[in-house]
Structures are given as structure tokens and as C-alpha cells.
Amino acid sequence: MSSSLLTDAVFWISLATIVVSAYKFTLSELYKSKCSKFKCCFNLLNVERNVIEEAKIDIENIHQAHQEQDNHKKDNVIIEEKNEL
What we know:
The protein has 85 residues and is mainly α. It starts with 8 loop residues before the first helix and ends with a helix. It is built from two helices and two strands; from the N terminus they run H-E-E-H. It has a two-stranded antiparallel sheet. It has helices at 9-33, 51-84, and strands at residues 37-40, 45-48.
């Protein structure tokens, strides 16, 4: 029995994995780059972003995460002190 490459399931799964990974990597790099305009695939995909607002939202999320960590640390200290008494 000879199987061709096009009927091999492992080939298609591998190809799909590579395509999805490349897509995810591209999107994550575009988000990190903070480009305001992006054109791809002979202008089939045009993206315009409000980078200033996204930066403000990112900063607010970072501050909120730090505050939650600080609150969590304070809660742990209070619990430990009560256990020592």
C-alpha cells in the first residue's frame, strides 16, 4: 500500500499547526509593535489602530495588576500574623 503525501493525515495536521502558529505569531508581533497602519496580502487586509488609546488601556491594566498583587501580599501578611498569635 502506497500512500501519497496529500492523503497522509500527519502531513495535514502538521501543515495546519504551522499555519496557525505563524498566524498567531504574526498577530502577537503586530500587537506588540504598536503600528498604527498595517497592510498585508496585496491590500486585502488593511488594519488601522488607535495606538494611543491602546497604550492607555495597557498602562491601566498593568497598574491594576500591580495593585491586585500588592493587595494579595498584604492579605497574606495579615493571615500569617494572625496565625502566630
